[in-house]
Predict the structure.
Amino acid sequence: MNKISVRGGRKLQGEVNISTAKNSILPIIAASILSGDKCVIDEAPMLEDVFVISDVLRSISADININEEANRIVIDTSNIKDDSEPSSNLVKMMRASFLIMGPMISRFGKFRLSLPGGCNIGTRPIDLHLKGFSALGAEVNVGHGYVEAQAKKLIGNKIYLDFPSVGATENVMMAAVMAEGETIIENAAEEPEIQDLGKFLNNMGANIIGAGTDTIRIIGVKNMKGTTHKPICDRIEAGTFMIAAAITRSKIKINGVNEEYLKPIIAKLTEVGVKIALDGNSMYVDADSDLKPIDIKTMPYPGFPTDMQSQMAGLLCTIKGTSVITETIFENRFMHAAEMKRMGANIKIDGRSSIIEGVDKLTGAEVRATDLRAGAALILCGLAAEGETEVTDIYHVDRGYVSIEKKLQGLGADVERITG
Ligand code: EPU
């Protein structure tokens, strides 16, 4: 089992380049099903989750060529058949596999796949996705561990999402692009990755207005075609490196960022006392020892992202005083707390809040990555801790960070991957 070893205490310096976004490319790969033509993704992030969704598509006869040197993925879905059913083992490995449901119903009028399970951060139901498909006229059945949908013809409709779910917004958008007439999704998720998916779909021939706002209008088209796309930058990877600078009280330059997408993270780090300056697509992050505790509540975009909650907790553990983080998106996203406590952190969980009392120092320990962002947060804590930290179950981190140890080494951190 691979692990990452961090010897803490070093200041970081230099620059790091941010990859394109995991949460953009996953729905984009799913969306390529909508046309039988080839789609090309340039500057693709080479991540475990990208390999898994590619295998899911391969299991329904898509031909996917991943060129790791060129960071290019060529997707040919012409051989997918209307009775294709993906491998249930793969679907269980990654919840985002469910994003192929919308495109499959849209292209073939029917689809069946095994139900995605819960995961370490919460139960994560799919009711909003299914309500959306039903509203478009699909007959949806759930039973015996499977979900099935069929529709002779999808027809546009007005769909109000009870909660602005990222996945449901994406799945319904993809299902609706070739539905007859107009679909309006209200209370849609506004994440930048949804705007990116809208751009990709429009380049495939869709007619979507307002992706990235709370009301998305989709006018059904007859056909979709292949296209080439570069996903947007990964705002969560960028945020993670911003905290790497803050937690080590260092100054670094982060390249390939978009200020707009990072506003909620910039606002909170500025409140902590970190100095942040933008220069086009680059950002300077400068932290000295005089940082202040803060309160944070995770919210749908443009609120503070749940995907940055664990990393922020790591930083707040090193800042004197009391900080409170309230998690409103997932019910079980405090698994990092028990591991951070092994490093000397003082964190109490009270319902949906974690109360963090800053400590003088964290100390290295063997800790376990319980999920992707918790794993990244523990590596960050290791950078600030005295002595050596070993983060095990590092496969979680590899799902969403491209060569995290190499990027940190480039900033002067004493980090190595131990394989075996
Ligand atoms: N929800 C429902 N019913 C549904 C769908 C969602 O109740 O039908 C609930 C979920 O249980 C959760 C909340 O709504 O409590 C938000 O879930 P959402 O659907 O917005 O999340 P997602 O689409 O499953 C994406 C990202 C996550 C990120 C969330 C929230 C991808 C592939 N995943 O998940 O990313 O945390 O949005 O921003 O885009 C990560 O990268 O570490 C990660 C977990």
Summary: The radius of gyration is 21 Å. The first helix runs from residue 22 to 31. The domain at 22-229 is CATH 3.65.10.10 (UDP-n-acetylglucosamine1-carboxyvinyl-transferase; Chain). The chain has two domains: 3-19+233-418, 22-229.
